[in-house]
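Hey, weird one. I pasted the Iron-containing alcohol dehydrogenase sequence into the form twice and got a warning about non-standard characters only the second time. First submission, copied straight from the form history:
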Amino acid sequence: MQNFEFYNPTRIIFGKDTIAQLADHVPAKARVLVLYGGSSAEKNGTLAEVRAALGTRTVREFGGIEANPTYETLMRAVATIRADGLDFLLAVGGGSVIDGTKFVAAAVNYNGDAWDILRTHGSDVSEALPFGSVLTLPATGSEMNSFSVISRTETKEKLAFGSPHVFPRFSVLNPTKTYTLPVRQVANGVADAFTHIMEQYLTYPAGGMAQDRFAEGLLLSLVEIGPQVIANPHDYDLRANLMWIATLALNGLIGAGVPQDWATHMIGHELTARHDIDHARTLAIILPSMLRVRKDAKRGKLLQYAERVWNLRDGTEDERIESAIERTRAFFESLDIPTRLSAYGLGTETIDGVIGQLEQHGMTALGEHQDVTLDVSRRVLEASL
C-alpha cells in the first residue's frame, strides 16, 4: 500500500426532513448567498425549505448555474457577493451547483485572473469563503470532496481544480429530494458514481485490501440497484443507497493509499466541452474502450474485477477480461446510456479536435503509469466510435 494522508472535514447530515437543520449549521449572523441551478429546486419545494431554515439571516439568491457550470455565469455570482458583502455560500442542487459554488468561494478574494484557479488546478488557492450544500442529485460526490470542474464557454475549455480550502463545511443529503429527478439524470448519476470508483480501483494491485473490497462492494451495489433505482423513483431505500454510494465513491476514502487513473475523465471532459454531451455519458463512452486498449497494463486488476464484481471464473484470462469489459458496457446500456460516439452523431472527424484540446491542456501523460500518451488517447477514441 502507498503512503497517504486522509483528511475530510465535511459533516454529513443524512435522511428525511433534514433541511431544517441548516439553522444549526449556518452561522446565525451569516450573510448568505444561496446558489442553485434551474427551476426544479423551486418547484419541488426545496428552496422554500431552505428559506425557512435560514430564518432571519440576510439571504440573497443566485440561480441559473448550468449542468456544466460556466466561468461566465459563476463570475456574475462573484460580483454579487462582492457588491452585497456576503460571507457564506449555500449550494442547493447537484454536483454542478456544488462545483460552481466551490469556484465562487475560491474566486471572491482571489488576486488576479480567476481563470488561473483552473489553469493552476487550484495550487495557488490560499483561502475561500465558507459554504455548505443541500444535495438534490447524487452523482459526483462533490458534496464531500474538495474538487471542482468548470467550463468556459468562450474557449470551449473544461478544467478541474482542487484545494483543501473548498471542502464543504457540511452537506445535507435528503434522499426524498431525488424523487422528482428526470430518469436521465438518475441514470447519469449511477454511471458517474460507477466510473469514479473504477478510476480509483481498476489500476494495478497495490496491496490495498480494504480499499479494494470497499470499492468492489460499492460497484456490486450499483450493479444491483442501478436499474431498480430508475424503475422505482419513490423507493426511499434505493434512493438513499444511491445517494450514499455516490458520496462514498469520491470522498477520498477508497482512493487512499492506492494508485488512481482518471484518464477516462480527462478525455470525457474534452468531449463535454466540445460537443456538450452529459459528463456521465462521456464516461460511459470512454471507459470500456480505455479498459480494452490498456488491458495489458491493467491485467491484474481486470482479472480481479472480472471475478469479484462479475463472478467470471471460467475461460482464459483474455476471455474473462473481455467478458468483464463487455458487461461493463452492457451495464451502462441497461441504464439507457449509449456507449459509442456514433450514438451522438460523432465520427472520426471529432478525434483530432479532442486530441488537440488534450495537448493544449497538457494532458499528454495520463493514467496511473503516466503512459496514456496522445497516441493512446487517440486509440481509445477510435475504439469508442
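That's the output from the first submission. The warning seems to come from a hidden character in my clipboard, not from the data itself. The first helix runs from residue 22 to 25.
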